Amino acid sequence: MAAQLGGQPIIILREGTERKRGKEARSNNIMAAKAVAAAVRTTLGPKGMDKMLVSGGNITITNDGVTILKEMDIEHPAAKMLVEVAKTQDDEVGDGTTTAAVLTGELLAKAEELLEQNVHPTTIASGYRMAAAKAAEILKDITQTISENDEEALLSIARTAMTGKGAEATKEKLAAITVSAVKSVVDEEDGKKLVDIDNIKIEKKVGMSLDDCELIKGIILDKNKAHHNMPDRVKNAKIALITRPIEFSKMELDAEIKISTPGELQIYLDQEENIVKGIVDRIAAVGANVVLCQLGIEDIGQHFLVKANILAVERVEKKDMEKLARAIGANLITSVDDFTESDIGSAGLVEIRGHGENKMLYITECSNPRSVTILIRGGTEHVVDSTERAVEDSLRAVSVAIEDEKLVAGAGSPEIEIALRLNDYASTLKGREQLAVIKFAEAIEVIPRTLAENAGLDPIDMLTELRNQHEKGNRNSGLNVFTGNVENMWDNGVIEPLRVKTQAISSATEAAIMILRIDDVLAATGGAEEGTCPPGAPCGGMGGMGGMPPGMMM
């Protein structure tokens, strides 16, 4: 890019920098976002299809929106915004990630129609903001309130969140496990219920079937004891969580030890042995009879632990150590030379269960009863992974419902109600924002339309019938994709937390507006390296405008 000053060109951007402006820039961004939304659109709903993602030999089979978008390795900067929308939805609510991405793509598609009619992007953005605010009001009006004790409603939320995912066959059992797990970790602060999902550990084990999934009141580790002569079962366990290896500390200095006789070698080996024995003696002295070590335990250390009748497990993951610390009321021991009895945690029972390669460590009757583990079993690794994602979505949905105590019907019901009321709202507006509100109403209908398409139903017929029912006042009417009928979704148990919808609409609107407001894209193609100038071109240009950072590829 160059500017003219008295006939002399002035280089402003680095040579090789691509620049797209105005309509071209906006069209490219909208096209990229629509392409990403289209990629996940077929996965929406109970009848959605799965995607197989292959990366470096690893295979992931899923219809979870955020998982697909993360694995797709998207390069286009505008398309990456849809990935961020899905991630935000996943972090905030756990469910509705595909909805958020598809809605963003549709909002941009409808905005493109307005742009072709010469409606200015800022006018569209203003109209979209007004529509999103009105949609939030409409959602509050169709919300129903529940309590933590409404077991059936919570089970319906759990079932809805995992419908259409890998756990479909056993969703009744998994829904019961999910609700029980969340209810066991509910806390209350200033009269408000809070759920810390970190207190729920998910442990996966390939083998057996999905019917063998279970909820354990405690912590499970997919680990066996460090030595076969250690005890398999310890009652009234006193547990030490050690983050350092139990071994003789090697010298870090560049030092040499000269040994001239066999006797001196034996003295050195005895000294090494005594240091390790001293560590085990200190562990035993504070009353610990179970040791969980984040790093390794060398053979001599295992020997002394066996003699002290201590059950030890090595190479426990850091995240599991942190969960254990909360569960048993222990402190992580970072120095084997300096710890006290107050650093030790407790549990009613620690035992090794299972046979052969399937042995696992169960820590139950913990001092913190709000620590639980969901054990997921399955025939293959892909089944187990898919079930884990479904359970995670379900856990987040149930926890959000308990925290907010507000639910809406699912299956496209709230979207149709919002669309109808937004059209009424648009008729009260003056100016071109009215056009944007109408397009927003059309865009939000993409959810029930996609549900119908993915179920092999006629989307026009289904949308017509849905609108008809809602105009009659049946505001909980949604699309039953299994029967092809429009039914009361609240009666059918197809319900979702209010936050799933409000978060999807707000984040999709924000992302669409951000993309719409971009009218200039500058992308470095890596022509000139940092600190060098193209041949024949003046260095420096205009201060601070030497091009875009490398890696901003289209």
| Domain unit count | 4
Q: Based on the structure given, which CATH architecture of the largest domain is correct?
A: Orthogonal Bundle
How would a crystallographer describe the biggest sheet?
A: 7 strands, mixed
Number of strands: 23
First-last Cα distance: 18 Å
CATH superfamily of the largest domain: GroEL-like equatorial domain
CATH class type of the largest domain: Mainly Alpha
Classify the fold: give the CATH topology of the largest domain: GROEL, domain 1
Helix content: 40-55%
> Averaged pLDDT, please?
81
Q: Overall 3D geometry? A: elongated
| Rounded Rg | 30 Å
Total of helices: 17
Approximate strand percentage: 15-25%
**Class based on secondary structure composition and strand pairing:** alpha+beta
Outline the low-pLDDT stretches.
527-554
Key terms:
4 domains; GROEL, domain 1; 23 strands; about 45% helix; seven-stranded mixed β-sheet; three-stranded antiparallel β-sheet; 17 helices; alpha+beta; about 550 residues
Your description of this structure?
This protein has helices at 22-41, 65-71, 77-92, 97-116, 121-141, 151-162, 171-184, 262-285, 299-307, 318-328, 381-404, 413-426, 433-444, 446-454, 459-471, 489-492, 498-516, and strands spanning 2-5, 8-11, 18-21, 51-55, 58-62, 144-145, 186-189, 192-195, 200-206, 214-216, 218-221, 233-242, 290-293, 311-313, 332-333, 345-353, 360-366, 372-378, 406-409, 477-480, 485-488, 495-497, 520-523. With 554 residues, it is an alpha+beta fold. It has four domains: 1-17 and 525-554, no CATH class; 20-145 and 408-516, GROEL, domain 1 (Orthogonal Bundle), CATH 1.10.560.10; 151-215, no CATH class; 218-368, GroEL (3-Layer(bba) Sandwich), CATH 3.50.7.10. The strands form eight sheets. Strands 11, 12, 13, 14, 15, 16 and 17 form a seven-stranded mixed β-sheet that branches. Strands 6-19-22 form a three-stranded antiparallel β-sheet. Helix 3 (77-92) packs across helix 4 (97-116) and helix 5 (121-141) packs antiparallel against helix 17. The longest helix has 24 residues, at 262-285. It is elongated and about 95 Å long. Mean pLDDT is 81; it is low at 527-554.
